[in-house]
Amino acid sequence: MTTLPAYKLWVDDVNKKGGLMIKEFNKRIPVEVVEYDDTSNAEAAVRLTERLMTQDKVDFVLPPWSTGFNLAVAPVYARNGYPHLAVTANSNDAANLVKQMPTLFFFLNEPRNFGGALVEVLGKLKGENKINNKLVMFNVADQFGAEASSGVTPVLKNAGFEIVVSKSYPLGASDLTNEIKEAKASGADTFIAYSYPPDTFMLTNTAITQGYNPKAFYTARGHRLRRLRRQLQGKGEWRAGSRRLGSVAAGRTGVRPASDGIAQSRRRRLGGAGDLCELAGARAGHREGRHARSQEGARRGRERRAVPDHRRAG
Asked: Is 150's pLDDT higher than 80?
């Protein structure tokens, strides 16, 4: 949903410029992609990663998505000497893993540190008597969910929070209505889910249909995607990002609409990454891309209005 389109965007952008500049040849060489579908199977991902390195002998391998898949293929990268840029993975044992596999690089913080940011926000709300100390925690039953829940749980407990409902659900679950009903009946003011985007959509919509209205609602992945925002339009206080509390681990509340000022600020803060965000948005028809189209539409409208009626009629 999020990783492969970004890879394709990068390849397209690089090749439009002639490719990567290779100093050895003093020229740009286009990127040639060898792509396999792991069918969302970790064993297949390991086997195909090995094939890319040992049979196809590609120059570099872009990492898979998710904590579980990255940790599964990490030994393959290390064994074959390929740099492993695990941008969508984290682990409570990151320090030891990078010692064991020197080619492995993590970009996300350890779950317990995410938990610290979460506790900071929740602790403030509790101190202001806006929420009680009871919470519900769900997690997807894979490596990401396990790492997140095990890393964050002790941080929450040390801060005086009580987990009154703890649920692990299978990857790909399509209905958690009974679990949401149990959360609703628990008396907890806070709901936390270490979820993937499809789970986030499902949990959020199920909470709405079941009238589950916790004071703090936090989901891990996908809450800032436009698809969810569209689903929640006209449904009261629910917003893209997590309801009310917003993206608490990032210290934000909700999602602001795009504007020229925000876009300029993003470019200043992120440099080339900001340009990539603009490019992705333009190609997807979002944010600045949509803004640019509306500006172009307005310009054409002005031009049409400037043309005499008899000319417009043919």
From this structure: yes
pLDDT(181) > 60 = yes
Distance CA(51)–CA(174), nearest Å, equals 33
Report the predicted TM-score, pTM, of the whole model to 2 decimal places.
Answer: 0.67
| CB of 85 closer than 8 Å to CB of 94 | no
What is the pLDDT of the chain when averaged over all its residues? 78
Token digits for 292? Answer: 């640019």
CA distance 193 to 215: 14
| Helix/strand/coil percentages in the chain, nearest 5 | 50, 10, 40
The helix/strand count (H/E) of the chain reads as 13, 8
Domains and CATH numbers, the chain: 13-106 (3.40.50.2300), 111-250 (3.40.50.2300), 260-307 (no CATH)
Integer CA distances (angstroms), 127 to 40, 64, 160, 199, 278, in order: 43, 41, 11, 30, 40
Q: How confident is the model at residue 112 (pLDDT cuts 50, 70, 90)?
A: confident
Inter-residue contact 95 to 101 (CB < 8 Å): no
